[in-house]
Design a protein that fits this description.
The complex is a heterotrimer. By secondary structure, chain A is mostly helical. Chain A has one domain. Chain A contains seven helices and no strands. The longest helix of chain A is centred in the C-terminal third of the chain and has 41 residues. By secondary structure, chain B is an all-alpha fold. Chain B has one domain. Chain B is elongated, with a radius of gyration of 18 Å. By secondary structure, chain C is mostly helical. The longest helix of chain C is centred in the middle third of the chain and has 43 residues. Chain C is rod-shaped and about 65 Å long. Chain C starts with 8 loop residues before the first helix and ends with a helix. The chains are: A mainly alpha, B mainly alpha, C mainly alpha. Chains in contact: A-B, A-C. Chains A and B meet through helix 5 and helix 6 of A and helix 8, helix 9 and helix 10 of B.
Chain lengths: 235, 222, 54
């Protein structure tokens, strides 16, 4: 806990993130490059044919979509319970990326669905859950924007994020239940053959690193913007 | 009389006076039930199949109509500050408001539902299941709705964000409620669906007063 | 390298294309916002000593 509070100071965060960023940026590009290279060398899947290529951009997007919401939930908890000052900024900064990766997961999932199911959308349980997650992100961002007082907005958003994170497993369970009721289809059936595993894992890592890199830049931007606002008010 | 009951009766009376939110919700509910067949056609088999889903969604939307006023009235005239300072825990206040909301929207909607199910050619057994599912599930709508209402109570046009915030959270209720009707229509047991719905509603009613109270506190500048 | 996706190419390439566009786009947007904030702060700090005189 002390570790976290040491970096609660914006100056410390700027220092730390500034040092770490070049590494995460390079690591991101490396992972994406290697992942894509390996991804385009795999043989077609015996069931999915060449569409298995979509595995490497669909699942990583979904992973970041959930990871980002988890990050927002953790920051919200830090904000509400321990009053960690940078937590609000961090939570707000993560949201647009989470929403984007969720949308990307939906688009790639839909494009994967068309050759598999015949239509672009078939209410597959996973895609439906991610559609609801997208709305959770939009509601979160809307709440931040709607409340004028920043402190209040931060705390309201934090409460919403925590209510959301508790609900997400319930939502997923209910959508799963619903899709078995209506005999839904599924793209990704859980087991991935080893030859696909490596490109997938590397792409997942690349996507997560991309999120972390962009997130840090956005938090740094927010810190600078706040300094600028303070200077303006002092004048 | 216990303070909770006093508060409860006061909120019910306020709801009854403020343009009859029950009447509004019922009209909206009935209107949607009328518009959908106009939209999808009068194929009775089709209507029976979609009745559960349509009526559940319509009920959720109808209950939403009066939600943004749940805390706003008291917030604007300062009574919420007084209530928050009273020895009565804010969580109980939230629970009282949730109950008042349900009594003035969810319950009337549930009572009207068998009549609307008739419009959809829903057979008697699934209609009963629809009734029971709404009876169990609408408290959850009021409870989750209260969280949204308390988060947005300081917003003048919070009514626009409220549905965006709470509708995704209500997906499980719609799924289990409408699913129960669907199962009954296929002559399969609806008990599991109703059980899941009951669990969801129980958890919602139990936990949302805490979230709502926290949100009220933050808006009162706590 | 296996670039021949057969009949599925019409789904695979747009998916990769949209992903690339989105990720590159969001990266550029994030960096642009950073540069703007940095420039604005630098400008304000330059004016600082003179402007804080009330």
């Amino acid at each position: 806990m002390n570790f976290l509070f040491r970096y609660a100071n914006p100056h410390e965060f700027m220092r730390l993130s500034g040092a770490v960023l070049p590494f995460t940026a390079v690591a991101t590009m490396l992972c994406l490059a290697v992942g894509l290279y390996l991804g385009f060398r795999v043989p077609p899947d015996y069931q999915q044919g060449t569409t298995i290529a979509l595995l490497f951009i669909h699942v990583p997007a979904d992973v970041v979509a959930e990871f980002a919401y988890g990050a927002i939930a953790v920051c919200s908890l830090l904000s509400l319970v321990w009053r960690h000052p940078l937590a609000d900024t961090a939570a707000r900064a993560a949201a647009p990326f989470g929403a984007l990766f969720t949308a990307l997961g939906l688009v790639t999932g839909s494009l994967w669905g068309k050759p598999m199911w015949g239509t672009y959308w078939v209410w597959d349980a996973r895609l439906t859950s991610f559609l609801l997650l997208l709305f959770l992100y939009l509601g979160y961002m809307a709440l931040w924007n709607a409340i004028e007082d920043e402190t209040r907005a931060a705390r309201a958003a934090a409460i919403l994020a925590l209510v959301g994170v508790v609900n997400i497993p319930i939502i997923k369970f209910s959508v799963d239940w619903w899709s078995t009721l209506h005999q839904g289809e599924s793209i990704v059936s859980g087991k991935v053959a080893p030859v696909y595993l490596w490109p997938l894992l590397i792409m997942m890592l690349g996507y997560v690193l991309l999120f972390l890199t962009l997130w840090m830049v956005r938090i740094r931007t927010a810190i600078l913007e706040r300094r600028a606002r303070n200077l303006m008010q002092a004048n | 009389m216990s303070p909770v009951v006093t508060l409860l009766l006061r909120d019910i009376r306020l709801a009854a006076r403020s343009g009859g939110s029950a009447a509004l919700a019922l009209s909206f509910f009935a209107l949607v039930a009328t518009l959908v067949p106009l939209g999808v056609g009068a194929d009775l088999h089709l209507l029976a199949r979609v009745a559960g889903g349509i009526l559940w969604v319509a009920a959720v939307l109808a209950a939403l109509l009066s939600l943004d006023r749940l805390f706003q009235g008291d917030f604007e005239d300062g009574s919420l500050d007084v209530i928050a300072l009273s020895p009565l825990p804010l969580e109980l206040t939230a629970l009282a408001k949730i109950t008042a909301h349900w009594l003035s929207t969810g319950l009337p909607l549930t009572l009207l539902s068998p009549l609307l199910a008739l419009l959809f050619n829903l057979p008697p057994q699934p209609t009963l299941i629809l009734f029971v599912s709404l009876l169990i599930g609408t408290p959850a709508v009021s409870a989750v709705g209260a969280i949204g209402a308390s988060l947005t109570l300081s917003l003048k046009r919070g009514g626009l964000i409220l549905p965006l915030i709470i509708l995704p959270l209500l997906a499980p209720a719609v799924i289990f409620g409408a699913g129960a009707v669907s199962l009954a229509l296929d002559r399969l047991g609806a008990a599991s669906a109703l059980g899941l719905l009951a669990a969801f509603a129980f958890a919602a009613v139990l936990l949302s007063p805490f979230a709502a109270a926290a949100s009220v506190r933050l808006n009162l500048g706590g | 390298m296996n670039f021949d996706m057969g009949p599925y190419g019409v789904y695979i390439w747009p998916a990769y294309g949209i992903s690339a566009l989105a990720l590159i786009g969001i990266t550029l947007w994030t960096l642009a916002a950073w540069r703007r904030a940095k420039a604005r702060l630098a400008a304000l700090e330059k004016r600082g000593p003179a402007a804080t005189k009330t």
